[in-house]
Amino acid sequence: MTTTARTPGKISRRGSGGGPTAYDFRRPIKLSREHIRTLQIAFETYARSCGTLLTTRLRAVSNVSLISIEQLNYDEYVASLANPTIIGVVTLDPLPGTVLIEIAQSAVMTAIDHMLGGPGGSQPERPLTEVEMPLLRGLIERMLGELRYGFESLVDITPHLKEIEYNAQFLRAHAPGDAVVVASFETKIGAEECIATICLPFNTILPVLSRTEAVVLSAAEQQAKDRALRNLTAGLSAAPIDVAVRFQPIRMRTDDIVDLRPGDVVPLGHLTSRPLEVTVNEIVFAHAVPGNQGARLACLVVPPPNENSSKESGRS
Asked: Fewer beta carbons under 10 A from the terminal one: N or C of the chain?
């Protein structure tokens, strides 16, 4: 079976025909209708803001609209791409995995021509120059900012553009059989039209979609949830914990420790002007000076020491 790659600059709609759709029984997990709807809202928000960005940045009437959201295998996605094309390799911190944002080379050349003050129109098919590459990186990074805005209702992400590639066949971002979610966008920059895509790893986006599913609670369930939260908060507030007040630790040789006898004096490396540390589970959360309250030892909590202040020479 042969697969025909789409022509750069032309609009193609994968899966728009009325024929049968392939089903991989080795990977029966599919995006639910609710998941697709959630992604549709996020990508449509991205498309609207991205169209506005391109119009203002390129000073040319531009439009981006979502066409489809599909679940494919990675090799199927790569086979559908033209060669050459422009592929941005992106990370979405703190989410794992690698995301690909792909734009037809003709559309990229048109965008760069507009950024350099040109009229757009038909452009040569060639690699980008050292002058054009920073312009492209800056444009994609601005587009990734709009992607962050589109997904902020689902998850707080920080996209980072790692590199730009021309040939998807040489880009091994995922294993051939890995499931991916592909969003296709109809992109118009002036008179230039193309299909741009965003490829998300299935295992990266599924946990996000699963934890953002809407859960409607009844009034009784909401009251029980609020009551449990109050009980948990009250229990944590009244829980006893061990608190220690300590001097600055020192290092000693093993034989010196073994030879210690009652009456021996061990000099501490703690400045007399420096307060003691108040700790819980080895975590310092306050500072104090020693004292007493009646017949019992006590400490007085004081402000933390100023590390930039000059140190006195006196030691205890």
From this structure: N
